[in-house]
Amino acid sequence: MSLPPSLRQSVTPPELELIACQQLVEIVPLISMEKTAFISGAYGPLRPPHRAKIPIWMAVNLKQKKKCHIIAPVWLTVEYLQQKLTQETTQAHFTQLPFRFAEISRVLLDVASDDLQNPDKLRTLLKDLREARQAKARAGLENLEHSTLGLSNLSAMEINEIRPFFIQAMAVLGQLQPVFNKDRNTV
């Protein structure tokens, strides 16, 4: 059920996953298929054992029918995520990750965990990375100022999570700003 715009605070996680499923992923098809046109574009042809790039939604559909193997993106490996987790916990700024890493990793781990190397470790690393980034975001919001806020390299899901709080906080700061300016001018 869709809520009217006045009642919606932000996009839901399933909606973010749907948007993320438009991105391309590499597969190894297990079937042959001619080039097929969809609203979002034409994909194919699929010829086993040659790799092909198709949208995640199509790869998920084929995977569920056991008609392809999904190749993990380069950032969805234990080594890469371990390196990013180390950077995240030792540096003050957010490490750069793909903008939709949370949504894509969730979809791929749910549907194609058998195609990924060490999926349990990947889940653990993604959870640890998420917690480290959430702690950093909370710390950044504690030092919120009306004029500047440095939270670069946030992912779509992270932005979506802090959006309701941020909007309310900025509205309150906007209301308080004239009061602060008036006090400074009278002193």
From TrEMBL:
Keywords for this protein: Chromosome partition, DNA replication, Nucleus
DNA replication complex GINS protein PSF2 N-terminal domain location: 12-71
GO CC entries: GINS complex
Domain GINS subunit per the UniProt entry, residue ranges: 75-175
Subcellular location: Nucleus
A GO BP entry: chromosome segregation
PANTHER family, alphabetized: DNA REPLICATION COMPLEX GINS PROTEIN PSF2
UniProt record similarity statement: Belongs to the GINS2/PSF2 family.
Record-given protein name: DNA replication complex GINS protein PSF2
